[in-house]
């Protein structure tokens, strides 16, 4: 019976995580590119995202509930806001650490500013993008468990119910699944990073 409950909860957990990470990543990439082009925006955006990151997840949920209620929207909004700092800072750092020789060479070949961004800078920033995604994904998987206080979904819901029960098998099972999900997600992103940066593999082999 417990296993029958765990699989739907695992899928809900995965869905909540994926939506938050994808939305957070899209917003963070947009913000990082904007700051890369308009450097003066870096300080205020960094300040806002870092402040949001310092707010404990439960407090962020409590602040949003009066506006969006006990809903998936509340959970996803909090998760996206919470992941922005990690994603934004790593992506912006990756863009800024692109060797200027590569940028100058691309400019010398007649590439426009946008072409340089998409064909050179973002490609060379992939390791930073993946590093940010790994940390944000694992963190989000953990925070989704706390989201059970807001919506009755995910592995956190099973953990909360197990805490009120004399039997701890479901608690252990749900916790183990959350850890396994984080490990698998991290492994997938590591593999994706290697596939997207073949030049790095060639350099390591050399």
Automatic annotation (TrEMBL):
Predominant place of localization: membrane
Spans traversing the lipid bilayer: 16-37, 44-65, 77-95, 124-151, 171-196
This protein's record includes keyword Phosphoprotein: no
Membrane topology of this protein: Multi-pass membrane protein
Subcellular localization, as worded in the UniProt entry: Cell membrane; Membrane
Name used for this protein in its record: ABC transporter permease
Keywords linked to the UniProt accession: Membrane, Transmembrane, Transmembrane helix, Transport
Pfam families, A to Z: BPD_transp_1 (PF00528)
Stretches assigned to the ABC transmembrane type-1 domain: 10-192
């Amino acid at each position: 019976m417990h296993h029958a409950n765990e699989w739907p909860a695992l899928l809900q957990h995965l869905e909540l995580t994926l939506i938050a990470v994808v939305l957070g990543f899209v917003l963070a990439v947009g913000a990082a590119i904007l700051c890369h082009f308009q450097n003066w925006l870096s300080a205020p955006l960094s300040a806002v995202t870092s402040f949001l990151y310092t707010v404990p997840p439960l407090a962020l949920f409590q602040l949003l509930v009066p506006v969006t209620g006990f809903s998936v929207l509340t959970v996803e909004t909090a998760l996206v806001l919470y992941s922005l700092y990690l994603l934004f800072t790593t992506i912006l750092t990756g863009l800024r650490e692109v060797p200027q020789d590569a940028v100058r060479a691309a400019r010398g070949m007649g590439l426009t500013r946008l072409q340089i961004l998409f064909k050179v800078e973002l490609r060379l920033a992939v390791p930073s993008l993946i590093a940010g995604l790994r940390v944000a994904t694992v963190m989000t998987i953990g925070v989704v468990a706390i989201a059970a206080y807001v919506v009755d979904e995910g592995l956190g819901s099973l953990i909360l119910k197990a805490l009120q029960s004399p039997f701890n098998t479901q608690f252990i099972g749900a916790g183990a699944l959350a850890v396994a999900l984080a490990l698998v997600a991290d492994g997938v992103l590591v593999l994706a990073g290697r596939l997207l940066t073949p030049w790095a593999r060639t350099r390591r082999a050399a």
